[in-house]
Amino acid sequence: MQFKPLLVEGGCGRGCPNIVAITRRIWHNMHMRFEKLVEIVGNQPVFETGLLLAGDADPGDVRRQLSRWTRAGRIYQFRRGLYALAPPFQKVKPHSFMIANRMVRGSYVSLQSALAYYGLIPEVVYVTTSVTTLRPGRWETPLGVYEFRHVKKALFFGYRSLEVVPGQKAFVATPEKALLDLAHLYPGSDDPAYIRELRLQNMERLDLERLRRMAEQTGSPKLRRVAVIVAELAREETMEYEML
Q1: In the structure, what pLDDT confidence band is assigned to residue 5 with cuts at 50, 70 and 90?
Q2: Which CATH fold would you assign to the domain 96-239?
Q3: Which of 18, 79, 198, 225 is least enclosed, having the fewest CB within 10 Å?
Q4: How far is CA 167 from CA 28, 42, 43, 56, 162, in A?
């Protein structure tokens, strides 16, 4: 039997059936068949267990079935309750930044991951690093390693929502805040030698005034020193280009 989504045209008043709930019930009535899971979540980069729990569904049965599919290589598990379809069933490849946001709600991608995304450092970064006000953590998954660093609430600012790939958005630090987050979390980072070792490039992409204001907002003398050092390096880079 071919599964077709139920469409409702026009307005919907009180008592109108919830489309998501109907979809869940249909899926459960089909006894957790994998092809029906693909039909339901195939267009989603990732999905959560809660999407599949409705009505009289047994949470234990759902989780056991998901575990079997994970062991069979049909789906990927990122953390408890968060999954994605694996190739060849995967229709939409999830971006690592979007995965990171979903793994820990209330986080944004920063540090080397964001700096590499903006082209400010030359290295390829293999760990997606985020900051959060929650507990730190690290997950090794089939689609990469995800690390979460703790910052206090006063430092949890300076990020924005970006469409990292078509149809997928993620909260990512601005270039300036990514640099300050890195400096905050690494000892000795206010040493000019440390900043030079980052091999910052494309520094015209940095808003130096915004960097200075953000450093002032943190109230950290260390980060104010970092902002001054970075501004000096940017001026040096500009002078080198002018001499060419």
Answers
A1: very low
A2: Beta Polymerase; domain 2 (3.30.460)
A3: 18
A4: 28, 14, 11, 33, 10
